[in-house]
Write a structure and sequence with these properties.
Elements (H helix, E strand, L loop, with lengths): L1 E6 L6 H14 L4 E5 H11 L14 H21 L5 E5 L3 E4 L2 E4 L11 E8 L2 H9 L12 H21 L4 E5 L4 H9 L4 E5 L2 H5 L3 H16 L3 E3 L27 H20 L3 E6 L6 H12 L4 E5 L5 H6 L2 E3 L2 H12 L2
Parallel strand pairs: 1-3, 1-6, 2-3, 6-7, 8-9, 8-10, 10-11, 11-12
Antiparallel strand pairs: 4-5
Helix pairs in contact: 1-6, 2-3, 5-9
């Protein structure tokens, strides 16, 4: 059996995604067990006659909270022993908490010392969705709810702490979007497919050639998913908040997405997409336009500089610069797929 630690802040949809994967896997004849450590903490508190309320749990003494977390993880071990037929255990837990403008430990090295861990995954979602979900959660009021900027910092902290703990155990850590397709996420766990990052010029074509962007997101993506686990940058749509393209509905106490919040979104987008490249075996570029895309060019150079093969579909005139950074470049998408099929077995 394999054990994966799945982190993600409140509102990230971490447990919902895992439950969806569990249901999908059942249809494929695979047995997955999702362990919601937050829920188990409340069950352990009830056994010990410790009163916990959802809107005050993080006010409890830190040592008591740590003890309850240890008890919850011991219960995970018991559940594992009770059902040895389970092929994959997904342990959903916070790495950090943001509470009343403080950072509280959600996970420690000690908690995981008895687990034979396969790897770590941090689940991320659109900041707009995360914030809206949390703003509707009754455990926070207007004074304790992490504001828009604080929520982003929480996402950064969760990602960072997850990586630090993974490095401590010398295990791989992945960042996966809540909107990652379930069938492709299933392949992540139950196939030997290589992993790729899909790079394409979003801003350069979404207004002038939206039908091409749709084709990349459907037809092209589906062909690639047959061969690989695909990390798709548009699984997160935070950048739509940075250029005045839409207004996010916030509580009356927050009038707008501040310039500081926009800067954080841009920095997080760059860091996350580079992280997608880091956790991939190759970068596949679909560049169906002559328009300049600084983002795609940066991703090509980053991939090349980090020893990742770069496979490029480019419909424009040949460029010696693209040819320099590309492992393989073609103007025929079918030819690209054929070349990638060879790469799958390399």
């Amino acid at each position: 059996m394999k054990n994966w630690i799945i982190t993600g802040i409140s509102g990230s949809g971490r447990i919902e995604l895992l439950n969806e994967l569990e249901y999908y896997a059942q249809g494929k004849g695979k047995k997955i067990l999702v362990h919601d450590v937050g829920k188990l903490i409340f069950e352990e508190a009830k056994k010990l006659h410790i009163q916990l309320s959802d809107n005050r749990v993080l006010d409890i003494d830190r040592n008591i909270l740590s003890t309850l977390r240890e008890s919850a993880l011991k219960e995970v071990e018991i559940l594992k022993l009770k059902d040895p037929d389970v092929e994959l255990h997904l342990i959903g837990i916070h790495a950090t908490f943001r509470w009343k403008h403080r950072i509280i430990e959600g996970l420690s090295f000690r908690n995981l010392s008895k687990f034979n861990i396969e790897g770590f995954i941090n689940i991320v979602d659109d900041i707009e969705k995360v914030y809206k979900i949390n703003s509707r959660n009754p455990k926070w009021d207007i004074d304790t709810l992490p504001d828009f900027e604080e929520t982003q910092n929480w996402l950064i902290e969760e990602e960072f702490v997850t990586q630090v703990i993974a490095d401590f155990f010398d295990k791989p850590a992945y960042r996966i979007a809540k909107n990652h397709k379930i069938n492709n996420l299933y392949d992540f766990f139950f196939s030997n497919k290589k992993k790729i990052y899909l790079s394409y010029p979003i801003t350069a074509i979404k207004d002038s050639n939206p039908e091409i962007l749709t084709k990349i997101q459907t037809e092209f993506l589906e062909q690639l998913e047959k061969l690989f686990v695909v990390f798709n940058p548009l699984a997160i749509k935070d950048m739509s908040l940075t250029y005045g393209e839409k207004k996010i509905k916030l509580p009356e106490s927050i009038a707008e997405v501040t310039e500081t919040a926009k800067k954080i979104i841009k920095a997080r987008t760059i860091e996350r997409d580079f992280r997608f490249i880091d956790q991939s075996d190759a970068t596949v570029v679909v560049y169906p336009t002559d328009k300049l895309s600084p983002g795609v060019l940066a991703e090509i150079i980053y991939s090349y500089s980090n020893q990742k093969p770069v496979y490029v579909y480019f419909s424009g005139s040949k460029s010696p610069f693209l040819e320099h950074y590309a492992t393989y470049m073609t103007s025929d998408f079918t030819d690209l797929i054929n070349k990638l099929q060879i790469f799958t077995s390399d």
